[in-house]
Design brief:
168 residues; PH-domain like; 4-stranded antiparallel β-sheet; 3-stranded antiparallel β-sheet; 47% helix; membrane; transmembrane helix
Length: 168
């Protein structure tokens, strides 16, 4: 029987907020709409001057529509790939679709817990929680954590880090 490398041996996985996919979809759509507007502007400004090459003005629109379709396909899948588990001695974070990553951070190795929430994230009610250790390679970032859960995680992980006392 094949064992999955990206499962937690202890604890239950907690998923991130579904709002993460919606926010990412809307941000990607905004960039796609900008590309559509660029095409319309190019066509209105230079369409007649370019003659038979006026179709080139629509290349940004094609890219914009492709971006919008791709982001709404990708964002929900990416959101489902993120999760975290609280084990007895460490915190486990996983994420990624094509390039999957599993980070195990012992509570005693955490130096600090960082919570960030920009204007879009706050509007959708989530934050990004980052656990920092002495090594930058083992920093674990969890996007899309609901705000109340981010507060709970910050307090719990800080207490556990202090309680395990192995800090660097």
């Amino acid at each position: 029987m094949r064992q999955d490398l990206f499962t937690s041996p202890e604890g239950e996985w907690t998923a991130v907020s579904p709002q993460l996919a919606t926010a990412r979809g809307l941000i990607g759509s905004a960039f796609g709409i900008v590309l559509l507007l660029v095409s319309v502007g190019l066509w209105l400004a230079f369409g007649d001057a370019w003659g038979e090459w006026s179709w080139l003005a629509w290349i940004p629109a094609v890219i914009g529509v492709g971006l919008i379709a791709w982001i709404w396909w990708w964002a929900p899948r990416n959101r489902r790939s993120w999760g975290y588990a609280e084990a007895e001695d460490d915190f486990v974070v996983r994420g990624g679709i094509m390039f999957r990553r599993l980070v195990v951070v012992p509570y005693g190795r955490m130096q600090f817990v960082d919570v960030q929430s920009g204007p879009v994230a706050r509007a959708f009610g989530f934050a990004t929680v980052t656990l920092h250790t002495a090594s930058t390679a083992t920093a674990a970032e969890i996007p899309g954590v609901p705000l109340d859960e981010a507060t709970r995680l910050r307090n719990r992980l800080t207490d556990l880090g202090e309680g395990h006392g192995a800090g660097v």
